[in-house]
């Protein structure tokens, strides 16, 4: 084997190990986010898988017994460095302190392209709908 092949193999090995470590920490961050949001009420979770260079997202929303959204967090991006952050609105649609059915109806009223982009939010709201 030539030196170039060994170096290339080493680079790929390091990248693989970094990705694995990042995935481990993302799972831990996901578990913590679910616990945080779960303190606000019933939880609904949704996701939109990203493509090669377009980021996806994971959405965790909570609602109280009255159906009002009490909290939410999302993780967006394509990198293993992405972390969860609080969300209060999506595409100029206010989320917090609104009935989740109203928000779901508003998102379903968007164009198909926007619905596809906000699929994780719609899935999280639909999960709340199934639990309600």
Distance between the termini: 62 Å
CATH class: Alpha Beta
Give the biggest sheet: 4 strands, antiparallel
Low-confidence stretches: none
Individual helix count: 4
Q: Beta-strand percentage?
A: 15-25%
Number of strands: 6
**CATH architecture call:** Alpha-Beta Complex
Helix content: 40-55%
Shape type: elongated
CATH topology: Sufe protein. Chain: A
Radius of gyration: 18 Å
What structural class do you assign from the helix and strand content? alpha+beta
- What average pLDDT do the residues reach? 87
Adjacency order of strands in the biggest sheet: 1-2-3-4
Count up the domains.
1
What order do the SSEs take from the amino end to the carboxyl end, as H and E? HEEEEEEHHH
Pfam families: GutM (PF06923)
Protein name: Glucitol operon activator protein
How are the secondary structure elements laid out?
Blueprint: H1 3-38, E1 42-48, E2 56-63, E3 69-77, E4 85-86, E5 89-90, E6 93-94, H2 100-108, H3 112-117, H4 119-131
Antiparallel strand pairs: 1-2, 2-3, 3-4, 5-6
Helix pairs in contact: 2-4
Protein name: Glucitol operon activator protein
